[in-house]
Specification:
The complex is a heterodimer of chains A (422) and B (112).
Chain A: H1 16-32, H2 37-58, H3 64-83, H4 90-101, H5 109-124, H6 131-141, H7 147-153, H8 158-174, H9 184-206, H10 217-232, H11 238-252, H12 254-257, H13 277-290, H14 298-311, H15 320-333, H16 337-351, H17 353-364, H18 373-385, H19 389-400, H20 406-421
Chain B: E1 3-10, H1 12-16, H2 20-34, E2 39-44, E3 51-56, E4 59-64, E5 73-81, H3 85-92, H4 96-99, E6 103-108
Antiparallel strand pairs in B: 1-5, 1-6, 2-5, 3-4
The chains are: A mainly alpha (422), B alpha+beta (112).
Chain lengths: 422, 112
């Protein structure tokens, strides 16, 4: 008989490896120095590989995270000794790593790791790092995502993402970026960068445009996790709370957004009982917190819109006039055509489909929306409500020619049938 | 019930490029495999290359190796119960080793 008698003393929590990876890469990078980020990544990869090779035969250790932590540290120690990468600092580094390796049961470790992750994401969003690399770098290091996963999320070429990461890490080395938290004026700019990256991550996850997946939940939840990390830090920023509120309230709707066959359900038809109550509560909590101080950022207004939607007990009692007011405010702050589009939907709800169509006109030919199926879909929807079937059908047909996900495609086809079939 | 050995040859590069999430999924598959009702035994071999002993000209020579050239390394072995080769192969079909670029050699244990 082999070693099958060993029972599983631990259970593998969902995403354990990915989450632990993020924490450990952040922690080891702080110890080794940002110039050795790649070494930190390699040691974490190696530690997980060892787990893969031994846990199936010996059982999952009681504290899986601590096991990975310790093993990663030992691998780092070996690497540092072997390569003498740190020259005369080698002995000091080995000592520091050894000390840290003994820490897994330190009650302050949890706080330390959160702090390390925060520093890491702030470094990833440094202005010296090319903008298009910040999200990828954050997802790779703190998020624990693989290059292939990141490429899939952003419909990018795997090699292109890999290149971005290489360049970003080179910038870190050449510009000698540190994991020190910025202060004063620099902090505000960096924080804006971090929030922008987190928000971008969330949006990509929320409205995935690839194939069958309407929702990239992992991406949404990671963005939410990172947002909460920032909001919980000592950097007091109401707009971080507003962003968390916005993300939590939108993420709460994810379970209700598609039905059993994976088809898209519009907001007004969603079964509210399927919204995640925990996330709603989290959203409202952070919305409250975001009210502190004088600041009214775009995140605040977006959060207010999400909050208004969430407060409605049923689709009929949704406060559309309030939502329209908020969109008016948002449009003034951010004149983007997407905001104008969303506002037009609210206009239609308050003043009827004809007014809604009129509100669409200014952006109907905006080049930024040219590839965006939603503009044509909304247009088609409003035209259908006005009984202008032929024009509505033309709009839906045009929408189908734009890139969109499978569930969205199915939705549009049904709308098209509604125009033609009756 | 006859027994079959599954000799698992891993491609070391096969796992290197996996993301943490993918590694966890592979792990869960490995764990599930060691617990299957037909799996009598599961062993993992050490990371080292081991030794090779050969008789040459009346002398026994021992060297390191044997894997200097080959890509695949015998990483582990299972003993499973199956009615015949076809069934053994069918059972081994979803082993994660195959998914990650490795090879499985299936051999009947004589006398079982």
């Amino acid at each position: 008989m082999g070693n099958l008698g060993t029972p599983d003393t631990g259970v593998l929590l969902e995403h354990l490896f990915r989450l632990q990876s993020g924490r450990m890469v952040a922690h080891l990078t702080r110890l080794l120095g940002p110039a050795h980020l790649e070494l930190a990544e390699e040691t974490v990869q190696e530690a997980m590989l060892r787990a893969l090779q031994t846990w199936p035969y010996h059982g999952v250790p009681e504290n899986a995270g601590a096991w990975l932590f310790k093993v990663a540290h030992n691998i780092a120690i070996d690497a540092v000794r072997r390569n003498r990468t740190l020259g005369e600092k080698t002995d000091a580094m080995v000592a520091e790593l050894s000390q840290s390796a003994a820490a897994p049961h330190d009650p302050y470790l949890e706080d330390q790791l959160r702090d390390d992750e925060l520093r890491m994401i702030f470094m990833c969003c440094h202005t010296e790092i090319p903008r298009d690399a910040r999200v990828a770098l954050s997802l790779k290091t703190v998020g624990g995502f693989g290059v292939r996963e990141i490429a899939r999320a952003f419909l990018a070429d795997e090699a292109a993402i890999a290149q971005r990461l290489v360049r970003a890490k080179r910038q870190i080395r050449e510009r000698r970026l540190t994991l020190d938290m910025p202060r004063g004026a620099e902090l505000k700019g960096r924080l804006d960068s971090v929030l922008e990256v987190v928000y971008f991550m969330f949006n990509e996850g929320y409205a995935a445009h690839a194939g069958e997946e309407l929702i990239r939940q992992d991406l949404c939840l990671e963005a939410l996790r990172l947002g909460r990390l920032v909001a919980a830090s000592s950097i007091v920023t109401p707009r971080a709370d507003a962003l968390v509120a916005l993300m939590a309230l939108e993420a709460a709707r994810l379970p209700a957004r598609v039905d059993e066959s994976g088809d898209l359900i519009l907001l007004e038809h969603q079964d509210r009982s399927r919204w995640d109550e925990g996330l709603i509560a989290l959203g409202f909590h952070h919305f409250e917190r975001s009210m502190a101080g004088e600041e009214v950022s775009e995140y605040h207004v977006q959060a207010a819109i999400a909050s208004t939607h969430a407060r409605a007990a049923d689709p009929q009692s949704r406060d559309w006039p309030m939502i329209l007011e908020l969109y008016d405010q948002l449009l003034e702050m951010n004149g983007s055509p997407v905001v104008a589009l969303n506002r037009a939907v609210a206009v239609a709800k308050v003043h009827g489909p004809a007014e809604g169509l009129a509100a669409l006109d200014p952006v109907a030919n905006d080049p930024k929306l040219r590839g965006y199926y939603l503009l044509l879909a909304v247009r088609g929807h409003l035209l259908l409500e006005l009984g202008r079937r032929a024009e509505a059908a033309a709009s839906f047909r045009a929408a189908l020619e734009r890139p969109c996900s499978e569930p969205e495609r199915r939705f549009l086809r049904r709308k098209l049938e509604a125009c033609e079939g009756l | 019930m006859p027994q079959f050995m599954l000799l698992l040859y891993d491609d070391p590069a096969g796992f290197q490029r996996l993301s943490p999430e993918e590694m966890q999924m592979a792990m869960e598959k490995y764990m599930a495999w060691t617990k299957k009702p037909f799996t009598k035994d599961a062993h993992r071999l050490g990371e080292d290359l081991g030794r090779v002993m050969r008789s040459a000209g009346g002398q026994i020579r021992t060297t390191d190796g044997p894997y200097s050239e080959t890509k695949e390394i015998l990483g582990g072995y299972y003993t499973i119960e199956a009615a015949n080769y076809d069934e053994a192969v069918k059972l081994a079909m979803d082993h994660p080793t195959l998914e990650h670029g490795g090879t499985i050699e299936v051999r009947h244990v004589w006398g079982t």
